[in-house]
Every structure is written in C-alpha cells, then in structure tokens.
Amino acid sequence: MRYRILIIAVLTINHVNAQQTTLNIEDLIFLDNTRWKGTLMYVNYSDGKEVDISKELKITIQGNKLIMENTYPNEPKANTRQAIKLRKNGAYFGKEKISSVDKQSNGNLTIRTKTIGKDNGVKAFLIKTYTIASETLMIAKEVQVLGSSRIFLRNKSLFKKHQP
Question: Are 43 and 153 in contact (CB under 8 A)?
C-alpha cells in the first residue's frame, strides 16, 4: 500500500513539475507573418449583454516581440497595434505573468497568464488564455474581482487563419 502511495505521489510531483511557466520566442515563431479573421465577443459594461463584432488580426515577430495588429472592419476607429515583449527570461508575456504553458505533441499551444489590473474601474485579477493551433486562434480574458471567488468571461476573440 505504501508503495502505491509513493508511486502516485512521485507521478503527481513529476506531472506538476512538467508544467512549464516560461515561453521562448521560438515557441511562437510559427505565428510570424500570419493573418487571422474572426470575431470579438465582449460583455458590455453598461447592460451586461454580449456583443459580437468582426475582427481581423495580423501577427508578426520582431526580435523578442509579438506584434499584434487588431483591425475592426466595421469600426476602424477601434483598430489597435500592440507589441508584446517576452520579459524576465520568458516568465512574462508583456506585463502579464505566465502561469502555465502547455505545448501539445500536435503543435497546439496554450498560454495562461494572470495579472492584477482593473475591470470597469474595480481592482481584479485579469486571467488570459491564448489557445493557438495551426488554423485556429482563441484569446479569452476572464475577470475575478479581488475578494471574490467568482470568475467571469469579459471577452473572447475567435479566429481562423486567413490565406490572402
């Protein structure tokens, strides 16, 4: 019986230790010069309703930075460009602390980050999940107001790779 418990404990520890919490730009190089089309779903602050809008994304890599150009075809004033730099030896994805990196054998990659910020003017944990596959990309932001155990989805972008 003790032997079984020891084996289970060792396997559990090895599984936990296998969870990666850093990222290298080489892990993302397959995203360089890619274009994506999809939608952004966000929960409206004023009435709590979900809103869907068209969104396009262009990703390039420059050195240790992921450049993400967000285009909203029906709302061009909302277009943004952000540079996300891998920092502190890959422990941070921009200003977001990486909590886990899951590289699957099929090439899919899931990155989870957590940071403290504000949501609708209230301090909260902002939890992001980036799920990247060869033909699909999902970026979701969840919010947990400090002092609360409730976590809710604030927005989610879903994309399919676009071949121009």
Answer: yes
Buried b (16+ CB within 10 A) or exposed e, 125-146: bbbbbbbbeeeebebbbbbbbe
Rounded to an integer, the average pLDDT of 84-104 is 94
pLDDT for residue 12 is more than 70? no
134 DSSP 8-state letter = S
Q: Secondary structure of the chain: what % helix, strand, coil (to 5)?
A: 15, 55, 30
| Alpha-carbon distances of 40 from 23, 130, 131, 132, rounded to whole Å | 25, 14, 15, 16
pTM score, whole prediction: 0.84
Total residue length of the chain? 164
Inter-residue contact 35 to 161 (CB < 8 Å): yes
CB of 57 closer than 8 Å to CB of 137: yes
76 to 39, 41, 84, 159: CA distances (angstroms): 14, 17, 22, 18
